[in-house]
Amino acid sequence: MLFRSLPGQTHCLPCQIAKFSAAVGASACTDCVPGRFGTLPGAQDCNDCRAGTYQDQPAMTSCVSCPMGTASTASHATICGDCAPGSYSNANASFTCTPCFAGYAQIQNRERCSRSEMSHVRWSCIEFRSNVVRHLHRWIVRRRSRSQLVQGM
């Protein structure tokens, strides 16, 4: 949009890049606010940063991709949020964090999930318990078979 900065000017000037004027007859242009950006002179509005990006400064010409381990779910974000415990983001410009699979946990960073030591211990205990039950069942079956064999004689 065009604006007139001084009284008596014979023509209006276009707003600079990353500034806008939505009103006819404006006397000044307004900076694009954080979370928005501008790419063309003479703009009537600014563009929203898309999900997965952010802009924390006013009057900027682009948005910044969210780094790994973070995400922005909404457009016009001013920050990217850390992935919650138990989830991760292993790519730049993520708009969601992915939950860790069962048996994995997000332990050190929010860029990946690792096999959880506690999960490993838990599964080892379950496997041990299963093996004990299986061997105990076999022992009982063999013992019953022998006792039936002895009784049948």
Q: Report the end-to-end length measured between terminal Cα atoms.
A: 107 Å
Let me know the number of strands: 14
Q: How confident is the prediction overall: mean pLDDT?
A: 82
Helix content: 10-25%
Q: Radius of gyration, rounded?
A: 32 Å
Work out the strand percent: 15-25%
Extract low-pLDDT stretches: 119-126
- Label the structural class: alpha+beta
- Tell me the overall shape: rod-shaped
User: Secondary-structure element sequence?
Assistant: EEEEEEEEEEEEEEH
Give me the number of helical elements: 1
Order of the strands making up the biggest sheet: 1-2
Task: Describe what you observe in this structure.
By secondary structure, this protein is α+β, with helices and mostly antiparallel strands. Helix content is 23%, strand content 18%. It has one helix and 14 strands; from the N terminus they run E-E-E-E-E-E-E-E-E-E-E-E-E-E-H. The protein has a two-stranded antiparallel ribbon. Strands 3-4 form a two-stranded antiparallel ribbon. A hairpin with an 8-residue loop joins strand 13 and strand 14. The longest helix has 35 residues. About 5% of the residues have low confidence.
Defining traits:
single chain, alpha+beta, rod-shaped
Write the layout of secondary structure elements.
Layout: E1 2-3, E2 13-14, E3 19-20, E4 30-31, E5 36-37, E6 47-48, E7 53-54, E8 64-65, E9 70-71, E10 81-82, E11 87-88, E12 98-99, E13 104-105, E14 114-115, H1 117-151
Antiparallel strand pairs: 1-2, 3-4, 5-6, 7-8, 9-10, 11-12, 13-14
